[in-house]
UniProtKB/TrEMBL annotation:
GO terms for molecular function: dioxygenase activity. It comes from Streptomyces atriruber. PROSITE patterns: RIESKE. The lineage of its organism: Bacteria, Bacillati, Actinomycetota, Actinomycetes, Kitasatosporales. This is Aromatic ring-hydroxylating dioxygenase subunit alpha. It comes from the Bacteria. Residues 21-125 form the Rieske domain.
Amino acid sequence: MSLSVQATADHIYATGLRNQWHPVVPSSFVAPGAMRKVTALGEQWLLFRRSDGTLSMLADRCPHRGAPLSLGKHLGDRVACWYHGVEVETDGTVSSVPGLPGCNLEGKKLVTSLPVREVGGAVLAYFGDEQHPEPAELTLPEPLTDPEVDAILCYAEWNGPWRFAVENLLDPMHGAFLHHESHTMYDGDTTAKFRIRETDRGYFFEKTDQRGVNFDWVELCRTGVDWVDLTIPYPPSAGPGGPFGIVGMVCPVDENRTGVFFWRYRRVQGWQRDSWRFLYRTLIEERHWQVLEQDRVMLEAMPADADQRENLYQHDLGVVRLRRMYRAAAEAQASSV
């Protein structure tokens, strides 16, 4: 591998894999008739929502002089750059150059526009390279599309590499230690053996000698967007709905910052859904933010080269498998650039 290809692979590995969908921010971050600057995969973007709710995502760069479009004016169906008034439509086409009407910039698609989807209260965008501009097929997590499941999105931003956040989810054993004081993770053994079980969309990393007690398994799913699924047993005092499920995704904001998306879900309908939401908002949510805060404190305290100075053991098989998969994908994408 040449030095340039290796450098590109390192950059992709650090800032996020291309040619797939990633969550960006919660949908609520962009109100109807508003726009918002965001950073994702180490690049600056503009989320632009029309008054009818239609959302677009543009590179935050005017094609004229490179000024940030996010500093411009929302004109309903387009944005006008503050610097010289150049107007850009939501598909990236320059519609008007007020300083020189009829100039050759008009009518040209000069600003990158990404495909976007909104699901479960979050904005997902497809980040392709020049060889893969068309969006990859996207299969959304079942708990976010099943009408019999109620999911609540929790979002936070952490100062640390995006990979650390995914690796944390592929490490079920940390629940028995880091989260030992949690109301749902206090039980179960602090010793375990694990196995990897392959699926047609990813793999399970699970305990072989304990189930339904603690954070006992996690499934990594690669369905156009990378996500994890896991469940944690709930006591009857937590209301109807059975086990408490979590769908997790991460946004590589840049090399040192990560957006984490956690949908907490239960299989409930009707009055049970109302009961679950009431209990969650009034009692359970605060406890779960405490668990997330424990993860944040630990991951932000780890040095950026933590994964270069390790001594791993059997419990880390899920993390090792993840790293090999992501590194291979980054190298393959770099080789095609």
